[in-house]
Amino acid sequence: MSDVLTIHFVLRLSTDKACLRKLFLIQDVMMKIGDIFDAFGGATRLAEAIGIDAIHAQTMKTRRSIPVTYWPALVKAAKRQKIPGITFEHLVRLHITKKISP
């Protein structure tokens, strides 16, 4: 079954947003920092999951960068909430793809 057919099939079976977010993560669509926040249900929910203030999480989302000090809590929270695809390796890939000015 192709990815498009798989997504279409699941979309017809489920209207649960959390389920759909997890499906897209499994399909390896999480290509931006903002997608991580969306997978948790927004900046406030991500903040609650990793134990920080919501305003700080919103700032991270706006800056499109999650400080390394929060990565262990983020990976652990993703596992706890069964959000696939959020690994240390993936976080590194997302952060090193930024263009670096000389």
Beta-strand content bin: under 5%
Helical content class = 55-70%
Poorly predicted spans: 1-14, 24-29
CATH architecture of the domain at 30-96: Orthogonal Bundle
Q: Between the first and last Cα atoms, what is the distance in angstroms?
A: 46 Å
Number of strands: 0
Principal-axes geometry comes out as globular
- Number of helices in the DSSP assignment: 7
Secondary-structure class? mainly alpha
* Element string (H = helix, E = strand): HHHHHHH
Which CATH class of the domain at 30-96 is shown?
Mainly Alpha
C-alpha Rg, in Å?
Answer: 14 Å
Q: Mean of residue pLDDT?
A: 78
Largest sheet: none
CATH topology term of the domain at 30-96: 434 Repressor (Amino-terminal Domain)
Kindly describe this structure.
The chain is mostly helical and 102 residues long. It has a domain of 67 residues: Orthogonal Bundle (434 Repressor (Amino-terminal Domain)). It is built from seven helices and no strands. The N terminus is likely disordered.
